[in-house]
């Protein structure tokens, strides 16, 4: 039986893995903490004043003998979280993925990176200043983490919104990116809607978490804390998809035998020049998969 042709070919080891590394570490930490608490018999820790709670807060488990795990995993994923945004900014500036089409987009990207750094320092300090010994500081750091990660997402998602609302300025070959006559019928706008749905759900979970905590309904509050923590991981999946076009282009350059238009190119500069000049023969019989991920913008950033 003949093997079917893959829909998308891409370089396996590439930049899109950066957020996925953070995802594995973050979800792995959460699962490990839940497993430890369950293996211990779901205890109510002494510093919780004996009040029944099911489940307990992440911070409660993180204040026990597995605090080193909490600190190390929080710090590790923080590096890759910020690294994802930095890499996205870099790849757009060097035109390895969709370049910026508006002068505000690089500013939003920088603001997103700054907010992400502050927010990720917040989660690191959440782990360091545990709720048992530094309760007030711990809660303040939780607030900083949530607030600044929210601002980082808003800035980053606004970049996708600008792409989606301006399809005429987009670099990708339109038969791959635009799928309808409506101005909003493009993949960048769909990506923005997905991010907006994620953000609205995250905001709703955070509000429920804080509201139940203020009402001293800790069990329900903890449920939403765990929920938003796992939901946070889906953001990293979305960002991984944003970086995937660079891996697609890398694969096409390294495997010209699958893409006839690259067979005679000797170096990357020629390849880039070919893409910038729309080096596609109008009479070519190449399949859609042979087209570049994007061509260079005819509307440079001002």
From TrEMBL:
Indicate the segments annotated as coiled coil, or none if absent: none
Q: Name one Pfam family in it.
A: Frag1
Q: Which residues cross the membrane?
A: 12-39, 69-90, 110-129, 141-166, 187-212, 224-244
User: Membrane as a keyword?
Assistant: yes
Q: Does the keyword Transmembrane helix apply?
A: yes
**Topology of the protein relative to the lipid bilayer:** Multi-pass membrane protein
State where the protein is found.
Endomembrane system
Q: Pull one GO CC term from this UniProt entry.
A: plasma membrane
Task: List the protein's name.
Answer: Protein SFK1
Q: Which residues form the CWH43-like N-terminal domain?
A: 15-244
């Amino acid at each position: 039986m003949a093997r079917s042709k893959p829909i998308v070919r891409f370089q396996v080891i590439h930049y899109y893995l950066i957020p996925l590394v953070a995802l594995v570490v973050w979800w792995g930490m959460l699962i490990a903490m839940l497993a430890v608490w369950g293996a211990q018999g779901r205890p109510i820790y002494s510093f919780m004043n004996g009040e029944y709670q099911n489940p307990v807060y992440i911070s409660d488990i993180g204040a026990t003998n597995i605090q080193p795990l909490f600190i190390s995993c929080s710090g590790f994923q923080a590096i890759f979280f910020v690294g994802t945004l930095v890499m996205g900014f870099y790849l757009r500036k060097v035109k390895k993925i969709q370049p910026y089409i508006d002068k505000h987009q690089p500013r939003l990207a920088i603001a997103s990176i700054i907010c992400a750094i502050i927010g990720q320092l917040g989660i690191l300090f959440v782990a360091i200043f545990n709720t048992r010994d530094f309760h007030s500081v711990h809660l303040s750091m939780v607030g900083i983490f949530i607030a600044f990660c929210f601002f980082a997402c808003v800035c980053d998602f606004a970049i996708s919104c600008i792409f989606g609302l301006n399809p005429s300025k987009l670099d990708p070959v339109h038969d791959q990116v635009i799928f309808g006559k409506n101005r909003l019928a493009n993949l960048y706008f769909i990506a923005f809607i997905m991010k907006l749905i994620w953000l609205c759900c995250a905001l709703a979970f955070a509000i429920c978490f804080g509201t139940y905590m203020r009402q001293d309904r800790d069990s329900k509050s903890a449920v939403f804390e765990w929920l938003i923590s796992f939901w946070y991981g889906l953001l990293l999946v979305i960002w991984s998809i944003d970086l995937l076009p660079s891996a697609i282009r890398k694969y096409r350059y390294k495997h010209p035998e699958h893409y006839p238009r690259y067979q005679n190119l000797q170096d990357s500069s020629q390849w880039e020049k070919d893409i910038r000049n729309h080096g596609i023969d109008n009479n070519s019989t190449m399949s859609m998969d042979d087209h570049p991920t994007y061509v260079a913008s005819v509307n440079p950033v001002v």
